[in-house]
Amino acid sequence: MHLKLITRQRIKKNKKSMKRMCLVMKHRMRMLVIQNHFLTLRKHMDTLDFRKISLNTLVNEKATYTFNELKEYIDWEVKRVYFIQNCKEATGQHCHYKENEMFIMAKGSCTAIIDQGNGKEDVILNGPGDAIVTGALVWHGFKDFSDDALLIALSSTNYNPDRSDYLEDYEAYRKILGENGLAA
Fold first, then answer.
1. Where are the alpha helices (DSSP H) in the chain?
2. What is the mean pLDDT of residues 94-109?
3. Beta bridge partners of 133
4. Are 62 and 85 part of one and the same domain?
5. In this predicted structure, what is the pLDDT of residue 45?
6. Within a domain: 184
7. DSSP SS3 for 61
């Protein structure tokens, strides 16, 4: 009986120790993730990559072709393609720590909201043929979609449902840029 009581007490004590250890490990993991994001930030400190481009268009009697040689505009591998359509309100409003994206206005129009460290600016995309490239740490979002808008996105990363690559707090974004000498 006495042995069982001692064993139960040890188990309870071990459970508390395990819980405490798990909390410490979670905290350490969070700190590692934050440190990793800041290492990425330092890697991109010289420039926050944003470009607006016009794709090539070829018109003949059969059709109009708008085309893009990816190697001319991006130096990263496309791992994901997604479409934004039927958009009734602003979308996006975030930056990525690592992900690069290219947005191609395939049909209709919208306004991109971009911040590269010098405040938000509106960039009109009037497709087909208008496109933008946003590198890591470039704040971006979209608004004012026409009813027929179709925006195609090419991404350098696979989809991550935990959104660990996203920074969605604009004030925190501006603060991080300011602390690292990237904000105007």
1. 2-43, 170-179
2. 94
3. 51, 102
4. yes
5. 46
6. no
7. coil
Q: Is the dihedral of CA 5, 6, 9, 15 positive or negative?
A: negative
Does the pLDDT of residue 1 top 60, yes or no? no
Give residue 168's domain range: 47-179
Looking at residue 58, what is its pLDDT? 87
What integer pLDDT is reported at residue 44 of this predicted model? Answer: 47
The one-character DSSP state at 71 is: G
Average pLDDT of the residues of the chain: 82
* Residue 17 is assigned to a structural domain of this protein: yes
pLDDT band at residue 9 using 50, 70 and 90 as cut-offs: low
Shared-domain flag, residues 93 and 157: yes
* Domains contained in the chain, number: 2
Is the domain of 23 the same as that of 56? no
pLDDT of 170 reads 93
126 and 141 fall within a common domain: yes
Residues 102 and 26 in one domain: no
Name the one residue in this structure whose structure tokens are 């350490």.
28
Do 99 and 137 form a contact (C-beta atoms < 8 A)? no
Q: Is 162 helix (H, G, I), strand (E, B) or coil?
A: coil
CA distance 93 to 123: 14
